[in-house]
Amino acid sequence: MDPESVGKKKPVILIAYSLRDPASRGAAEKLLAKTRWNKCELRFAKNCFYSDEVNAYLAGFDADTVEFSFLDEASPTEAEAYIVLSRHSGGKPSLTVHYTGNPGPKAELGGNPWELSYTWPRLQAALLRTYRIVAEEQGLIDEFQVTLEATHHGPTCLKKPLVFIEIGSSEKEWVREDAHKAMAETVFRVLSSDWTSTTCTRVAVGIGDTHYPATHTRGVIEKKYCYSHIFSKYVLEYINEDLLDQAVNKSKDIVDSILFAKIPGAIKRLVRSYGEKHGLFVGKV
Fold first, then answer.
1. Domains of the chain, with CATH numbers?
2. What is the mean pLDDT of residues 142-168?
């Protein structure tokens, strides 16, 4: 444990996983082996454990992770945020971190259209930075890309910050014990630390880049940026002031910037106008 974290009260976190998901379930099993857990009970949970060391609940549910819209009802009242352990589908082998939300009219994988989840930029940044370190330590970095993902899928309606940490991108990777260990070690290491003091040179909304936004990922790793929602180039046609309001106002940490990759002129004008109206720095990543 980080000596600086001793004596500080860490936020209570609910770590949620799916019994239907081999990546989710496998990482949860490795996390249970990391420290001492006491059994508990939570509504809807098939199993539940609590650890004083990481100040977290670990609960398994018989639903897919994109269907976890019931977490507010299941969660202990003292929990301040949710970390969801999950598989990731599509693309090359990846270790990813992202927020949920449907920035547009489609809601193909849970949640509501035009709705974004609450975010905690320092928590996401701590998870991504640590995931990369752990992947390097465990010899996975040459095989797996460690990356943010742009905001996508459900759940969207929860009232507490929600971040997904994932293993992708196929069944071959979902069942790998070394990937499970990397995810578990990442979550354990972050929650054992003073992660609420994670360095954020900027707290930003991200605009542009691909679904796996390399520029924003480098911003977190190299420039110590922290992000609320990231809107990929594939959803820019839907970006409006309401979505920007959600991305700014649903952040646990105060957003001070909008950082963009290469984006169309019309979107650039929209975000510059929005930033000027709300006193936000607007610039390239």
1. 3-197 (3.40.630.50), 202-284 (3.40.50.10700)
2. 98
